[in-house]
Each structure stands twice: as structure tokens, then as C-alpha cells.
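3.2 Worked example (two chains)
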Amino acid sequence: MSNTPALLSELAAILDPAGLQTGDAIDTRFRKDWYAPLGNPPLAVVRPRTTADVAAILAACHRHGQPVVPQGGLTGLASAATPGQGEIVLSLERIRGVEEIDEQAGTMTVWAGTTLQAAQEAARAAGWLLAVDLGARGSCQIGGNIATNAGGNRVIRYGMMRDQVLGLEVVLADGTVLTSLNKMLKNNAGYDLRQVFVGSEGTLGVITRAVLRLAPLPSATQTALCALNSFDDVVRLLRHAQRALSGRVSAFEAMWADYYTLVTTRVPGVRAPLAAGHPFYVLLDLQGSDADADAAAFERMLEGAMEDGLIVDAAVAASGKEAESFWKLRDAVAEFPQMWAPNAAFDVSLPIGSIGRFADALRSAILERWPTAELVNFGHVGDSNLHFSV
């Protein structure tokens, strides 16, 4: 067990005055993530500025047998960043910034506490795209995105966060620093240690820096919201769009009727581009480089889907601003913990062809047990993902 006064004294010597919070000075925001109830006060909150600070902190805690909980942007929905009684919070929020963008290689070296949005904007300013995108982009941090192997809205085209990571700097529990900031796409020199830490959720080490792969920046985006009669039609539309658009579908988000009705009637600022009452809705994007040609291909794809009976109605965004309003439908899920309580949220993956049957069986089982429960379904169907909230 730790010798608390001695440990806190060591931590105070490592950090500047703003880097250590104890007792009543601990900000309550460090006691929970986005979804969890307010947890117990941690023993302390440490807010390092550098990798060397993180190494010294973890070495001290290791010597004293002190548990540490890493925290990023606190946008998680599984309470993983909520500290237990007597634990120390290690916040990465001050280890932030873009160290380098290699415009020739298409890579970005970024500190772990940088928000996803800040990294995206830096990449965009340099003419590149950081492809992973989440509704919590303004708060979630790169380190947390890597530690959870975040997916988000664009997995269908660009892959998970794992697919964007080329190199990592990680501090192990005893303070050892592993630095492998590889910038090359091809690297078959031995074991690929970075993949051990991607998705490890802070259990194996604290990520402090990363080299990320960037994609060419699309110069044109087409966005549409479609209404459909069945989940089978959702799957058929996905395949139709992928074939017609030659693999350029960049997002394919399915929403069940209950979700669509909930967010368009109860979430402020969200409008309904299509009438309510359809069994399913799909929000899809095409990202390309020729606005006129892409728009024509997108229109042909939608017309073909309409002729084949896959969709019964559709709205195409006429501008970037209107596309953003369409995407508010999907991003509205971030409001659920505040507006709809108590609730339980789940994020599961299963074969695309099984998602519809699973959702139906789940609804029947829940309503049989809790007849007054509300259940909403939505998800990144294009990459075999389903979210459901009860």
C-alpha cells in the first residue's frame, strides 16, 4: 500500500502547482466520465505536461503500489475513466498539440491530449484528412481514441483508429518509456508493438504521443438521408451504394424509427429532413474530388435505389450547412445521458445480415420484461455495428 503523504510529496516535486490537485481542490469533473454517475473523490489528480512527467509520476506510483486511472476527454460511456476510492487520476489534458505534419508523407505526430477536432483541423489546414470521426470530436482526445480503438462514422471507408496509427510513444506502469514513432507505411521489422497498446484502454501503459496516417482531403462531399421499409432494404441499399459509387461510400448510418422520432422531437436543434413514420432511415455520405461528377453519380445511385424499391423517400443536402444539419440527427446521441435517464447503452458488433433479427429479438425480450421501457436502435451498419439504448 502507498505511503500517501510521501507519495503526494513526490508528485508535488514532479509537477508545477497547477499540475496537482488534492482534497477539496479536486475538480468534480475528474470524478466521472460522460455517462457514469459521480464517483468517489480520487486521492489526487495529476496533470502532467510532458512524457517525462508521466514517466516520473508512474514510477513514483509504482514504487508506492498506488493505482492510477488515466483520463482523456471523459467522453466514454462505460465508466472506464471513473476513479475508485483512493485512486489517482492521471489526466492527459495538458499534453496536447500537433508536433508535426509531414505533408509529403501524409502523417501527423500529435500529443495524446489533443482533441480529435483540433487534430482534424490541423490536418485539414495542411491539405490532409484525419479520417476517424466521432460525434464527441470536440472533447475526445487522440490518446483515448487510440486506447479504445475508436471507430466512429467513417470506418466503412477508412477503418478503425487502429488503421490510422503508425507509431506510438507509451509509458509503462513502472515509468519505462517505449518510443516507436514510426512514420513509414511499410515496416516489417519484427513485432508490431503499437498494436498491443491500441485498444488496451490504459491497462498496459499510458499513450503520450502518436504518429497517425492521414488520407487525401476530399474536395467534395455528397450527403443524403433515405427512408426505407425494412432492414433487408437497408442491407440491399448498402451493397447497391457501394457498387454504384465504386467504394467511395464514406458513411452509412442506420436509424430505426424509434431513434429518428426521439431525436427529431426531443433533442433541441435537430430537425427532421424527412417525415417520421418510416421503419428505417439511412444517412450516407460520398466523399470525392469532383463535385459535379460526384453529385451526378450520387443522384444516379439514389434514382436506381428508388426504381428498385430500396428507398421510399430521400433528401439530398444542397450545401455543407445542410449536410451538417443532417448529421445532427446522428450526433444527437451524445445528449441521451442528460435527457433520458435512467438508461443503459450498449455498443455491439455482429454480422450485418443478423443485425435486423437481433434488434427485433432484443426489443421483444426487453418489452416482455419491462413493458414501459423505451428502446432505440441506431448504428454504423456498414461496419457491422449496432448501438442500442434502453
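3.2.1 Second chain
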Amino acid sequence: MFIFSGFRDMDASATSATHIGPVMQETSEQPSDEAPRGSTSVKQRKRRRGGRASCGSVYLSSRGNSIRQHQGILQEGFIQYAMDKHHQTDNPDGIVNLGTSENKLCYDLLHKRLTKPDMLHVEPSLLQYADWTGHAFLREEVAKFLSHHCCSPKPLRADNVVVMNGCGSLFSCIAAVICDPKDAILIPTPFYGVITEDVHLYSDVKLFHVPLDCEVGIRIKHFHLTVEKLEAGLKKAKQEGWNIRALILMNPHNPLAELYTPKEMIAFLEFAKRNDLHAIVDEVYMLTVFDESVTFHSVLSIESLPDPQRTHVMWGMSKDFAMAGIRIGTLYTVNTDLVEALAQLGSFHGLPGTSQHQVAQLLRDRDWINNEFLPENRRRLKNAHSLLTRELRSLGIPFLDRPAALYVWADLRKYLNKSSFEEELSLWRCFLRHKVLLSCGQAFSCSTPGWFRIVFADQQPQLQLGMETAFPYVVSKNYF
């Protein structure tokens, strides 16, 4: 898997050797040293940095070399995209990015709000050291915001809020304080692949996969998560000698865009309680539900959690507020021991005081959020989703039709010459040669080859160009 420029949210990532569970041999394939025309090969880049492609650097520790060489199969794609980004006038033949989960639909709304005078505020306390869990004024606004939008039975407390520079930092720090090196965390697959690096690079914590199969049958949902599957996964992990410390759940899900019901979430949390597991619940897409007839139910809305001390809920600004570059992630937990441990790591992952002020001002502006931004954002997401899914239907490409998130999970299995992850990777590279970057299933540890995540949260010209540029070649199988 791949993190670009330090941002967790660069979704162009892939399965690496740090996962545990059913292994797909094809996923071990690394980017070819013979990169497509116009790109730089892995070996060339390493030589330019003074290192060696196959050996560790004498300047680094074993851990440093492991971190440096931790590369995913989609790194070559994102590097090519970064060097050849499409621009309507400056680079019209460049690569269109439908692979990275960013909302690019609302810059005009954000620019107008973020440039208002109340955002331009500086006072001494913002320039000095502060509480490493976040300034009190920001944690207060986060607690109020989550109380309202998560429909919590009681007002949430600011003392239970931890703020860091992104949810990736939170995943990393939580893993460090609830797990020992070589411990493992249970996670259903497919899942947002960069979590592997989040918990592994610093803390040497592993993810144990619970594969959700692409099932077929009447009233059977593809990639359906059940307690029975979690039980089977945990049993297998214990048989193999792994010490499982936690369960990671995502709602809405990435990459499936699945919304879990309160009944399902309570069942998953009860499973965690029975087995003394922490439940880390990622709700970073909670306000991206764009169908008015569908309601998202947060874990924080549950009247009585099965195990409050081991239930921890994450949320951030990247998805719901279309601000992936503003690195802010929040955690809500009533476990004071966890909060205190995270505070010790906060100095490595804090936010600038002025940024905290701006985020607090934004969250404080309920009128703008509820009457301007969220309704318009949902409308634009719905239109973009309709555009993409209409194109997929016209091409005869199946997909999971879900009313949330910034992407669809599309089934391109019929375009593989054979069912293998090597073929999936070949198809992904063909898209890239035709100037469209997608995310293939291997990036999410999908157990079935041929599924791709396609991001629709972009301006209409970009989205249409991406669909028209490469997909006709795929449908005709004229892509080699």
C-alpha cells in the first residue's frame, strides 16, 4: 500500500506483505522496473535517492529500511498520475484520477466560507503549546457537532474527544497503545488498504483478514458482513496463534459504501464484547449519505453500548467536508486511560493552533453547515453518482448501488481473461495506459479478483472524460 506525501488519504494503495489471513499469491507483485513510457522506474528512483533497489541502506536501521521499502502495487500508478495530472488547459491529455477518494465538488462553497474574516484570527494561545489532545475550544465544538449529527442520547463530552492530524494518525496511535508488537487486529475485507500501514509501520501491529466473499444467490448480498464470519475469523486467528486485540469496523464502508443498520452494528459490538476486543469504528463518511430516504445511524446514537470502555469512534473532515488536505481526525471514547495514553503521543500528531481555530469556527457555523453546505454537497454527490452509474449501466458493468460515500464498487470480472489477481493488475494497468487511474480490488485486500473502486466525486467534465477515455476499450476488450 502507498501513502503519498504523508497523507493517509491517498487511496492509491495496495495489499502488502504485512497482512495476515488468506494469501493471494498475485498480490505480492511489485511495480515493474520497466515502468510505462513517461514514468520513472522504482530502481531509478531509488538510485537517485542514493539507495539500492534490492538491498537495505547502510544509513538506516532494519526498521528504517523496512519502512522505506514498504511499497504497494499501486505506487507506480499514483507516481505516474502525480507526474501527468490532467488539466483542462495545461495538460488536457493527462491522467484522470478516479482512484483517490476525494470530494472535488465543493471548492467554491469552501473557498467562500474559509476566506471570511472570522477565519483570520491570531492570538497568543494559538501560537503556544497547548493540550496535545486538541485545544479545549475545538474539542467542545467537535463534541457539540457529533452530538447533533450522530443523534447521541446525551450530549457528548469534550473531555472524551481527541484531535490529531488525520484519522491515519489516530489508527496508528490507537494501535500503539492497545496492542503490543506482533499483536493483531481483526478486519473484514475488502477494506481501506492504508490502514495496514497505519497500524504496522510504527507499531508492528498486524491486520488479520476476515474475507467477505462475492456471494451469489437470491437475497444474498455481495460482501455481506455477519457475526458468524467474524466468529470464524477470530477462531482461525487463535488457531494460528495470533493475539487479537481489536476489531475495525467502517460505516459507511470503504470501498463497499455499505451502510450498516443499528441492529447489525450492535451485533458486531456484542461480538467484540464477548471476546474482550476493542471496537474501532471509522465513521469518516457519515455525512456523505446523498439519498434523502436513507438514514445513517452512528454508533454514538446507541442508547446503551455493549462495552463503552472498548468502543472508540473516529470521524474527520476529509470526506464529509471535502477537505482531504486539512489533516484533522477526531476520536470519541469514554475510556480515560486511552485518552491519556493518546495524549502522550499527541505531540507527534498535533494540529497548528490557527488551523484548530479555523476548524472550530467552521463547526460552530451551524447555519452554514445545515442550510448551505450539507444540502448542496449532497445534491452534487447525488448528481455525480447518477452520472457515473448511468454510464456503468449503459456499458453493462455491474456495481453495488449504495446511497453513500464518494465511490462505487464495480464488478469488472467479465473483462478478465481469467480469474486471477495478475489479470486484475493487468486490467488496472491498461486503464492507466489509457489515462485513467482507478483502484483495483487488491488495494483493498479483496478476496475476489476483478472488482474496482471508482470515485465519482469530481466535476462533470472530469468524470465524463474519465469514463469516455478508457471504458470503451475495456468493454470491447481491445485494451492490450
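3.3 Remarks
Residues 1-18, 22-53 have pLDDT under 50 and may be disordered.
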